[in-house]
Amino acid sequence: MKQIILVCTGNTCRSPMAVELLRKKFADDSDYSFSSAGLTAIRGGRMDERAKMALKKTGIEPDEHSSRPLDKDLVKRSDLILTMTASQAREIKERYPQKEEYVFSLGEFTEDGRDVNDPFGGSQSTYEKTREQMEKMMEEISSRLADFFTETTKTPKEAGKFDTRSDRMVIAAGSDHAGFSLKEEIIDWLEEEGYKVTDVGVDQEKESVDYPDYASRVAEKVAAGEAQLGLLICGTGLGMSMTANKYAGVRAARCHDTYSARMARSHNDASILTMGERVIGTGLAKDVVKAFISTDFSGGRHARRVDKMENKGEMNE
């Protein structure tokens, strides 16, 4: 029997919901066993009541659930690990590189391509929308599991069956003359990693240019949805950030350390990273970019705060 583990953050909402949906889907199939865990779970927690209610509306009476953290023993016993988000999958791969070929987000394993964002702190409707998204994914998973486990000569990625986030994400990048060299190095590195980068300029560093022109180009692409994320580099990162933040729906964050980069995405839903070539070296800059693009927005209480931030203009009227 194949052991499949569903993983989220706290193991009280998404992953136990996913397990119940899969158990219903595979009720007559004894080839698979489904269980769940959380990357930062506290042992012994119960399933969120709103998650239970969302399942009950589909006729599922959830089993008793006790949350638990993902540990090396669970990973060792697993045949496949499916996470809710791409960043969770990457974290598990970094912790357990020996299992890299058997770890995917639900979006990667299916053709959905999206993360399953955390409904925690949201309304009952939010939980039901999360369940509906996962229900559609489960339909596809049921047809893909057999192919996954019978493919022995190649990994799923080598076989070309599963997308990765880098295949889908477009990053708009721009700089002025002071950030040109670092921008070029970062773009080359991102493209080597498989990301699609739209370079809006500048194309040389000899002639002085005005940073607002290039910050605007990137901000416009992000605001229009032509790029999922943006990268702007000038001498300090300050002017680029100030300019990009003038655009509706764009949140630019100047970060020169990985913690700030992760928090800018996780807590503030930032869509553009700005840096200063005169402030940060290439090695650290790559780490900061990696932290930024591999982190997902946490939602929940942070979504409420971002909404308040976006509506600040209305509050001042």
TrEMBL record:
Pfam families: LacAB_rpiB, LMWPc. GO terms for biological process: carbohydrate metabolic process. Residues 2-144 form the Phosphotyrosine protein phosphatase I domain. It comes from the Bacteria. Transmembrane segments: none annotated. The active site is at C8, R14, D118. InterPro entries: Ptyr_pPase, Ptyr_pPase_sf, RpiB, RpiB_LacA_LacB, RpiB_LacA_LacB_sf, SPI_LacAB/RpiB, Tyr_phospatase_low_mol_wt. Coiled coil: none annotated. Keywords: Hydrolase, Isomerase. One of its GO terms (molecular function) is protein tyrosine phosphatase activity. The keyword Isomerase applies. NCBIfam families: PRK05571.1, rpiB, rpiB_lacA_lacB. Belongs to the LacAB/RpiB family. This is Ribose-5-phosphate isomerase.
